[in-house]
Amino acid sequence: MEFVLTPAIALLLFATGTAAGFVDSIAGGGGLVALPMLLSVGMPPQIALGTNKLQGSFGTFSAALNYIQKGEVTLKEAAVGIAATFAGAGTGAWTIQHMEGGFLKGLIPILLLGVLIYTLASPDFGDAQRRPKLPAPLFYTLCGLLLGFYDGFFGPGTGSFWTTAMVLFLGFSMTRAAGYTRVMNFTSNIVALSVFIALGNVVWTAGLVMAAGQIIGARTGSSLAIKNGSKLIKPIFVTVVFLTTARLVYQSYF
User: How far apart are the C-alpha atoms of 129 and 22, rounded to whole Å?
Assistant: First the structure.
């Protein structure tokens, strides 16, 4: 089925991009909204994945910029993480072109389930800034390489892992963790997007229509997250982790 961008589809994709950007800027998981829509309008899977990375990159950039402007993120502090994530994502994106990533489909839902249980069992999880358990440079180097590789190689749940790790090991509040997560997500998205572009697996017209919606949704969602903090972020975060886990379990075992 050849993809054709009609006015009706363009409007639908714009609305989807707005919704995906809103959710993703708060708790990640925008792909749960965007990717099924791209597939439903007739895109082959690889092209849908590439187009999703294009539109999603605009959303993560918009949200990250808002968190930076509102003082929740300092780029100087994130520099080591950005560099490590870039290297990890590049390695992951290269690796997935040469081997099968299916073995991760059974492991990742288990890890995400652990994140969900821990978050629900910790009523004060991410409510306030706490003392870090690891030096920031060491944390960003290890997690940047590991989670950057994972995002380039496979992807689902990356934002959830970043947010949880920042709260646990750096003592971040959920709001601050959400901001730094968007910066790291944008970094690995750009690397993965470059690979999809090189392979010709991007529909630019559709991606840019969704990107316009992403910018609006991400700006709105991140502003609400900054204003309301963990009381808004945590329930959306839990919902996104649950839905991501359910989707991966279904894809892996059914």
Answer: 24
Exposure string for 152-165, b = 16+ CB within 10 A, e = fewer: bbbbbbbbbbbbbb
- Helical residues (DSSP H) of 97-229, grouped into ranges: 104-121, 136-153, 158-169, 174-198, 204-228
pLDDT at 202 over 60: yes
What are the CA-CA distances from residue 42 to residues 26, 29, 48, 188, 249 (Å)? 29, 22, 9, 26, 24
Residue 70, pLDDT > 80, answer yes
Handedness of CA 145, 148, 150, 156 (dihedral sign): positive
Q: Which residues contact 229 (CB under 8 A, 6 or more apart)?
A: 127, 173, 174, 175
* Long-range contacts at 162-167 (CB < 8 A, ≥ 24 apart): 162/28, 163/27, 163/28, 163/126, 163/237, 164/115, 164/118, 164/119, 165/139, 167/125, 167/126
A 10 A CB-CB count for 5 gives 13
Tokens of 212: 């316009």
Asked if the model's pLDDT at residue 252 lies above 80, the reply is: no
Distance between alpha carbon 157 and the CA centroid of its chain, in Å?
7
Question: pTM higher than 0.85, yes or no?
Answer: yes
Place of tokens 């925008």: 30
How far, in Å, CA of 56 to CA of 37, rounded? Answer: 13
Which two structure tokens, joined as six digits, stand for 206? 């559709």
Answer for the pair 191, 90: CB distance below 8 angstroms, yes or no.
yes
pLDDT tens, position by position, 114-143: 888 988 888 788 888 899 999 999 999 999
What b-and-e string marks burial along 184-206, b requiring 16 or more CB atoms within 10 Å of the CB? bbbbbbbbbbebbeeeebbbeeb
